[in-house]
Amino acid sequence: MASTSAALKLLAQENTLSELFVRGEDERPKVAHNAFRDDIPVISLAGIDVSAERRSEIREKIAEASEEWGLFQVIDHGIDPDLISKMTRLSQDFFSLPDDEKLRFDMSGGKKGGFIISSHLQGEAVMHWRELVTFFSYPIGARDYSRWPDKPEGWKAVTEAYSENVIGLARKILELLSEAMGLEKDAIAKACLEMDQKIVVNFYPKCPQPDLTLGIKKHTDPDTITVLVQDQVGGLQVTKDGGKTWITVRPVKGALVVNIGDHVHYLSNGRFKSALHRAVVNSDSSRLSIATFQNPAPEAIVYPLINSNIREGEEKPLLEEPITFAEMYKRIFRRGLKLGEGKPQNQTELDLTDIIA
């Protein structure tokens, strides 16, 4: 019943929530979508290329946020606000299309990219309260425009410009993280070989009983780094104690949310956290977010980058042996990542792939 867009719209109009979306008591949100706190750092990138002193100051703030939360917001990031506004407006317009228009891009049945409801893991009984459209944007030569929406008008051109700007920002932040580890600024980029990019646009309709469900359950991202646009409604939550305490990230106008993925967590030998986060919903208004995932090439080797601690034997590598990103991805998906003495951040929560709040 809830496998089509029409069904989710109808369910949203009910007074009670369908059992398909009801979470167990231990998963139900206790912190509201708009119970904002200011724990998450908001970092200005202004002047990053002006002086070594300013770059060092920004680098230190990003490293500290990545160590504590694995998540932060950036302002003065250099991406044109008009471009972000256009991307957001077109995304909203897409989810306002008639159901038959969206379902032309139905990605059920293993299609690579398109539109779908919920996108919970195969075998999971409880669905996520969301719709999404997703497509692959890098490498450019691998783009399959047949899986990109062709409505509303202007989607392709705006998305191409947006994806190019975001991958540029992601590379700049990865340079700072590389430098913070005492490495050359292109160390993480080299470890990625060729960076892949996937865009996921999430739409969370109003929900009749938001205290019983989640837009997306708690998870970490397996990618290298994620850049997120969220509207002003609120609903992104993050934790640094395994889910005992949840912080609702305050939307900051013009800011982009950045969160560290599992890939960088392992490259940094656990120094930088991969953020454990989720999305909650509400009964007053819908919410939209646009997540851009930067992944390494499937054949890229995942192993802590050389640093003095590992070289001198003062700290053992987090991974027992080098593996490819494709293998890391599979092991995370199976909850079977082999480890050394260390333990990955939120190991038991590494159970959602390519999904962001």
TrEMBL record:
- From the Swiss-Prot or TrEMBL record, what is one GO molecular function term? L-ascorbic acid binding
Q: Any idea which UniProt keywords this protein has?
A: Flavonoid biosynthesis, Iron, Metal-binding, Oxidoreductase, Vitamin C
Q: Which GO terms describe its biological process?
A: coumarin biosynthetic process; flavonoid biosynthetic process; response to molecule of fungal origin
Task: Tell me the ranges covered by the Fe2OG dioxygenase domain, including all copies.
Answer: 192-296
Is Iron one of the keywords? yes
Which first-to-last residue range defines the signal peptide?
none
User: So what family is this one in?
Assistant: Belongs to the iron/ascorbate-dependent oxidoreductase family.
Pathway annotation: Secondary metabolite biosynthesis; flavonoid biosynthesis
Natural source organism: Oldenlandia corymbosa var. corymbosa
Task: Provide the cofactor list for this protein.
Answer: L-ascorbate
Query: What name goes with this protein?
Result: OLC1v1018232C1
User: In the UniProt record, does the keyword Magnesium occur?
Assistant: no
